[in-house]
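Per your request, structure below.
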């Protein structure tokens, strides 16, 4: 029996010319549930979480899963049962946490555009902290909390002005980004927060970007944040916790981000050296907890040879897997069954009427019509960003746990898609 694992998909293994996720054969799932189909490994998620937990052993730290990466209820349930809190960015996400059995008291609320309704909803639920992103938001939050006879727990998201060296669309810690309060204005903003009757300053927050594959930007940002903590506390405002955001990258295509425990060993050494090692810590990882835990199965519909390009047309598209179209992102694509023969170079594309609808370019594949391909590392920011463009129902989702496969989302029907619409009468 041959047995090997794939880079970028740690829980996918080849056994006797078939691909398995944990104990479940992927081809069998495609036959039973159809394609496109997202399949996630619970063990892969828990193993990614364990790396952070190891990193924080003996520390006062809370891992708040940034659920925007994958907000499917059963995925949230896995992290809630493992004791995680959640980083949310909308009232809808808060409702998902509660439905999935998560604890609102472990929720932190990020985002530049919280509405009054969302603030009220979060205060009613009793969340742990609001990560406030502007002075204007501080004023509104104070007003809302006061009107409810409460004081809202707040951190201010500071923008450390460090380059996370990632795609410009997912870099958030530079001066030109819409996120956070400029480093230079942070102290002033804290003083304002401390003076507002509806607020209680709890912590400081920073998030510099996503798919970060080096430690240096984190270490630089940590220094900048600790400088601020020192200045803010010198001004008499106590900082109870430091929230260091998310952003750690995963292996999509030979990327070599530091392991979560190795990164935190470095960051904790810095915190210790500067005397903040016992401070309460929070983090908001998304992609690094779920990205490599998922694959998307898709069937080859047609092979279309061309003069300049050969196309492999599959039944998944940019509405299911938006990352290539949005960020020119790379996902490995592997056939479920290995065929013999000569490999052909294809652009793997979906059925949507846009040239931007591609999943992989110049991929060398040995495939035939009807074969099923696995698009790897699709556990994060795929289903969560899926749409109904071209009136395509969203894919079904399966959670694999050992040799069990649970349907955690059925395929969206046409009736589901038009449920909110009405004809003019
Ligand atoms: N905290 C905040 C405030 C965030 O804005 C984000 C992500 C995270 C935490 C989680 O970051 P992570 O650990 O997942 O890198 N759709 C893009 C990624 C957008 C990230 C947005 N913010 C993609 O597919 O690459």
């Amino acid at each position: 029996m041959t047995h090997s694992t794939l880079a970028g998909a740690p829980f996918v293994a080849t056994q006797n010319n078939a691909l398995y996720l944990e104990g479940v054969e992927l081809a069998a799932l495609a036959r039973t549930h159809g394609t496109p189909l997202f399949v996630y490994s619970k063990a892969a998620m828990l193993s990614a979480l364990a790396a952070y937990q190891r990193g924080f052993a003996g520390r006062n730290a809370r891992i708040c899963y940034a659920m925007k990466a994958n907000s499917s209820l059963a995925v949230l349930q896995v992290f809630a049962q493992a004791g995680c809190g959640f980083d949310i960015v909308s009232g809808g996400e808060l409702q998902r946490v509660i439905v999935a059995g998560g604890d609102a008291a472990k929720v932190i609320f990020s985002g530049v555009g919280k509405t009054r309704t969302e603030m009220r909803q979060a205060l009613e639920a009793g969340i742990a902290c609001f990560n406030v992103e502007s002075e204007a938001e501080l004023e509104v939050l104070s007003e809302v909390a006061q009107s409810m006879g409460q004081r809202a727990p707040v951190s201010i998201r500071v923008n450390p002005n460090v380059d996370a060296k990632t795609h410009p669309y997912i870099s958030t810690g530079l001066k030109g980004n819409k996120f956070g309060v400029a480093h230079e204005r942070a102290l002033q903003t804290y003083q304002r927060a401390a003076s507002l009757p509806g607020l209680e300053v709890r912590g400081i927050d920073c998030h510099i970007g996503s798919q970060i594959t080096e430690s240096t930007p984190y270490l630089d940002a940590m220094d900048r944040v600790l400088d601020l903590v020192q200045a803010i506390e010198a001004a008499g405002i106590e900082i109870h916790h430091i929230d260091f955001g998310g952003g750690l990258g995963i292996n999509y295509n030979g990327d070599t981000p530091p392991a979560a425990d190795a990164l935190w060993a470095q960051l904790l050494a810095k915190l210790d050296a500067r005397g903040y090692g016992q401070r309460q810590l929070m983090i908001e990882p998304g992609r690094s907890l779920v990205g490599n835990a998922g694959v998307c199965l898709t069937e080859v519909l047609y092979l279309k040879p061309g003069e300049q390009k050969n196309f492999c047309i599959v039944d998944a598209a940019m509405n299911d897997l938006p990352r290539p179209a949005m960020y020119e992102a790379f996902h490995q694509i592997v056939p479920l069954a290995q065929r013999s023969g000569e490999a052909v170079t294809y652009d793997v594309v979906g059925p949507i009427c846009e040239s931007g609808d591609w999943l992989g370019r110049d991929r060398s594949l040995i495939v035939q019509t009807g074969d099923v391909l696995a698009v790897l590392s699709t556990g994060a920011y795929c289903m969560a960003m899926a749409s109904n463009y071209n009136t395509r129902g969203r894919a079904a989702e399966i959670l694999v746990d050992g040799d069990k496969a649970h349907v955690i989302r059925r395929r969206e029907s046409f009736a589901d898609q038009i449920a909110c619409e009405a004809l003019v009468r």
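The chain has two domains: 2-41+291-417, 110-285.

Regards,
D.
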